[in-house]
Amino acid sequence: MAEEYKAPRGFHDILGSDLRKFRRITSLVRTLLKRYNYEEIIVPIVEFAKVFERSIGEATDIVQKEMFVFPDRKGRVLALRPEGTAGVVRAYIENKLYALRPYHKFFYEGPMFRYERPQAGRYRQFHQIGAEVFGVAEPHADAELLKLVQDILDGLSIDAVIEINSLGCKLCRPTYREALTRYLHDVSGHLCDVCIDRKDRNPLRVLDCKVETCREAVKEAPKMVDFLCEECREHYTKLKLYLDKLGVKYKENYNLVRGLDYYTRTVFEAVSEKLGVAVVAGGRYDYLVEEFGGPPTPALGFAAGIERLMLLVDEPEKDYELYFVIPFGDVYSYAINVADMLRRKGKVVELSYRGGGLKKQLELANKMDADYAVIIGEDEMREGVVSIKDMKTGEQKKLKVGELM
Length: 405
Fold this sequence. Notes:
By secondary structure, the chain is α+β, with helices and mostly antiparallel strands. It is about 35% helix and about 20% strand. It has two domains: about 5-170 and about 230-310, Bira Bifunctional Protein, Domain 2 (BirA Bifunctional Protein, domain 2); about 320-405, Rossmann fold. It has helices at about 15-35, 50-55, 60-65, 85-95, 140-155, 175-185, 195-200, 210-215, 230-245, 290, 305-310, 330-345, 360-365, 380-385, 400-405; strands at about 40, 45-50, 70, 75-80, 105-115, 125-135, 160-165, 250, 265-270, 280-285, 300-305, 320-325, 350, 370-375, 385-390, 395-400. The longest helix is centred in the N-terminal third of the chain and has 20 residues, at about 15-35. The radius of gyration is 27 Å and the shape is elongated. About 35% of the residues are buried. It is an enzyme of class 6 (ligase).
């Protein structure tokens, strides 16, 4: 196949076994989100680029290097969404949802786009399912959100460690930022080129660098938890208390900062022990709605990477029986009617589109993993019956159509 007719690098088809894993994950997560009374919201894949620059942060790698940005016909700069929260915040404000009730709980599902190096479980088009809560400042909301994350991991039988940290608020973080910046200047000789650039523009991101020399250099760095104001300290303490009460296992990671600028106070990641990367991540963003021009609104949320979760789950077992209807001769009007009656009774039915002898038809039924072959010839049509064969045992018998139902 010519190169121009292949999927672009980092974009991929999802089908077969992978699609069944995909649907297993989204079905389980959707069920849990509904159980927690989250309401679905669908937002555009394309937004004005400023939506993401304002929310994610102009100094982040996502905005500087990874966004798919393009002009429309009028020269306005648009972007394919690299994450879900910014669009939901924009929708919350634009539709004045804050005026309807004190708080809202939303969830979304869909593709995201980042121009980064493709790797296992991460593509340039990838899929997330996420949740957002608007209008609740209390730490019990953080704890309940993390319990939901734990329920997702347990439901998918995934071993992952939930790591938490607090990034403080706009009152206490500036003092910490100054202390961290001074420390990074002292150890700058051990930082990679990217972190040397980050240390003044976005010093917290240095803590998250995966380069070994940087990881070693920040081992003795100041910790945000030591700079928290009284309100942030109380919020973090209560969060841990509630998590203990809920039985959510967690580990404190004082270098956890996440890659987006909008986070405040609670941040968290569920890190897969097998993959060594986060499969679910999120936190609190109490100032983002206000920064977008909405009213002051505390908020928090998370997103789960579906492709990464797919690397950790088994393909679900088939949960239905397939009836493969095989017509012989001029019996299609009868066969179509039998197939229709089976479907109206809730059965999964494949009406064979292929001609050929019975042997070839049964081979096709096996390829389709059929449970039963419903064989219909002119004799069966005349007698008002079908011949049904159990594809697992080989047992075959004639039944009246009513008996088949």
